[in-house]
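Students often ask why inverse folding is considered easier than folding. One informal answer: many sequences map to the same fold, so there is more than one right answer. In these notes we will look at a single instance of the problem. The structure comes first.
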């Protein structure tokens, strides 16, 4: 939530900052702003409610005169999206400027102290309080170094943040700090970049430092990057990392939206998730994270899966997979509920935390709680080196590549793939899954990229056409059973978050316990009905829907004869073992949500009110 970018060097700071903001816009997009240090005239600040494009239309670049600057793209927490609440914020004396991602929880206490001392505030934000708090320390001790004043202030605040701060009297200096929100420092030749992730500077340098939790850095062309701990002011020697990210991965590559690109990337992303992990010839699954901790998993009383949103849906499928193949009891919890309900956790529990971004505040807090109680934490993340990846005891990356569209697509199917690997590996190890069945399933896993390619090729055109029929609809139901109950939940979430059509996912059999009351000739119902599993039961559910004149859109296998006959629209997917059908069935549901949203004129990559990484609770 919120994107931060900053630059000091020889290039025109405005262009670097604004282009960087465009890449970070997935993190928040209700307002945007920039601050430049312009020689001889001080700070130039431009900020506005709206997108980075709106910022560009009201701001100027100073034609290369400004070589240092910062920018921000916001997802509102304190105060509505407005020009005055947009970042950067300035201190009362006009000398200190700040951009901030996160929340300062005790801002009202600090605001009261500062107000009593005569400081005034023009916005509703916690950020403006922080910048004035920094000024307060410098006012109190005029000899205090700027970065020390930042450190003093940070030692008094609670919350989660990544910040970047500039001071007019400390020319060419950027001070950054992180606690709970990510911050990367790009190291160029005579230039430095800062950003919430490496995407704004990947074309300028391949070297970066990822600031650790509780660390801050003072960055200037003269002194380089000086990293210290916020608490103890101890100097830190940073680890410099080589960036693996390529420009191609973070651009649209000819697609109209990132979401469509990411849907079409799934044959490759699943291939990348499996690469080096499924060795059919040797008859093994080789995953370092699990391999080294098999005994810990096998001895677990139970596995608790914690996640939010789409990742939680992947977790639900994980429950079906792990219970079926490894016969270990699994509980799936919303991280946001788990963290606050005083759950029973013991040292014999294994917690699997699933997160695309690896930053989600609720998931982080739930992990910390489980860790305190001695549980073993296994992280499944997409973003390498993210906070959740770091805090976990072990884990697996999904390797789906950067996911920029706010609606998760390829990360979800990659999570399902990893969970399949975990379930099969554990099942084989603890003897619940026989060798013949194991071999059959791991061989089938390898065919999934090809099958997804087939789904994309054969269904894309017809889904695009079919979607035009649902633009005026207000409600959708998604139904599935067994492994495809979570697929139904995920299909409904995809539709509602990008098209703003209300959609509910249900286990198909639950329909008659309530939702059936909604069904009439105006209600489209998506039925996920692959032939394996509870097919006969689903046939009965479809009959019940048709008896009430509901419009059925079914996702079925090629060989289907019964459900498709009763359906108004049919989407065919290749046959597979039931446990892998969610991976195949999710793809057409993503396409359908995408096209309905596009035809309704919605911004699918940046749906209203949402942000890609939810770093606040
Ligand atoms: O990064 P995470 O996987 O932890 O994010 C969890 C949810 O915020 C996320 O899946 C959200 O539901 C997406 N917008 C779904 O498309």
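Output (designed amino acids):
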């Amino acid at each position: 939530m919120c994107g931060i970018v900053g630059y000091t060097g020889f290039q025109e700071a405005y262009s670097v900052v604004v282009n960087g903001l465009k890449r970070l816009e997935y993190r928040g997009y209700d307002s945007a702003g920039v601050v430049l240090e312009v020689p001889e005239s001080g700070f130039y600040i431009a900020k506005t409610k709206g997108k980075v494009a709106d910022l560009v239309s009201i701001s100027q670049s100073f034609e290369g005169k400004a070589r240092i600057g910062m920018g921000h793209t916001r997802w509102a927490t304190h105060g509505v999206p407005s020009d005055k609440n947009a970042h950067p914020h300035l201190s009362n004396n006009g000398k200190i400027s700040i951009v901030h991602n996160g929340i300062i929880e005790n801002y009202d206490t600090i605001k009261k102290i500062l107000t009593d001392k005569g400081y005034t505030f023009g916005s509703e934000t916690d950020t403006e309080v922080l910048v004035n708090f920094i000024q307060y320390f410098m006012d109190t001790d005029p000899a205090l170094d700027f970065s020390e004043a930042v450190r003093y202030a940070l030692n008094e605040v609670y919350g989660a943040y990544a910040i970047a701060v500039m001071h007019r009297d400390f020319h060419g200096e950027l001070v950054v700090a992180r606690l709970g929100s990510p911050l990367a420092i790009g190291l160029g030749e005579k230039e430095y970049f800062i950003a919430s992730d490496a995407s704004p500077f990947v074309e300028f340098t391949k070297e970066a430092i990822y600031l650790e939790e509780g660390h801050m850095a003072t960055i200037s062309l003269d002194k380089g990057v000086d990293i210290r701990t916020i608490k103890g002011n101890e100097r830190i020697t940073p680890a410099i990392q080589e960036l693996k990210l390529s420009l191609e991965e973070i651009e649209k590559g000819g697609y109209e939206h990132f979401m469509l690109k990411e849907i079409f990337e799934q044959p490759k992303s699943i291939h990348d998730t499996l690469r080096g992990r499924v060795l059919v010839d040797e008859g093994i699954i080789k995953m370092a994270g699990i391999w080294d901790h098999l005994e810990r998993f096998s001895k677990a009383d139970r596995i608790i899966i914690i996640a939010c949103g789409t990742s939680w849906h992947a977790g639900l499928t994980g429950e079906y997979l792990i219970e079926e193949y490894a016969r270990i009891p699994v509980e799936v919890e919303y991280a946001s509920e788990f963290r606050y309900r005083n759950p029973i956790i013991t040292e014999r529990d294994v917690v699997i935390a699933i997160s695309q971004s690896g930053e989600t505040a609720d998931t982080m807090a739930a992990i910390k709680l489980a860790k305190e109680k001695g549980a073993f934490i296994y992280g499944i993340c997409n973003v390498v080196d993210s906070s959740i990846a770091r805090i976990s005891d072990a884990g697996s990356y999904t390797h789906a590549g950067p996911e920029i569209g706010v609606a998760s697509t390829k990360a979800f199917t990659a999570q399902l793939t990893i969970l399949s690997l975990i379930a099969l590996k554990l099942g084989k190890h603890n003897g619940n899954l026989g060798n013949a069945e194991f071999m059959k399933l791991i061989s089938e896993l390898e065919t999934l990229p090809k099958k997804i390619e087939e789904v994309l090729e054969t269904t894309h055109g017809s889904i695009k056409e079919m979607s035009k029929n649902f633009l005026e609809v207000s409600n959708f139901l998604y139904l599935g059973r067994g492994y495809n109950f979570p697929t139904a939940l995920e299909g409904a979430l995809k539709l509602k978050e990008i098209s703003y059509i209300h959609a509910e996912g249900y286990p198909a059999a639950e329909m008659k316990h309530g939702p059936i009351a909604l069904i009439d000739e105006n209600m489209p119902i998506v039925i996920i009905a692959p032939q394996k599993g509870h097919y006969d039961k689903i046939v009965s559910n479809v009959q019940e829907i048709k008896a009430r004149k509901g419009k059925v859109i079914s996702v079925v296998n090629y060989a289907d004869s019964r459900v498709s006959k009763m359906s108004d629209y049919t989407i065919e997917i290749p046959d597979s073992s039931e446990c892998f059908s969610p991976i195949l069935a999710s793809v057409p549901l993503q396409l359908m949500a995408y096209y309905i949203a596009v035809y309704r004129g919605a911004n699918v990559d940046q749906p209203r009110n949402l942000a890609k990484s939810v770093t606040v609770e």
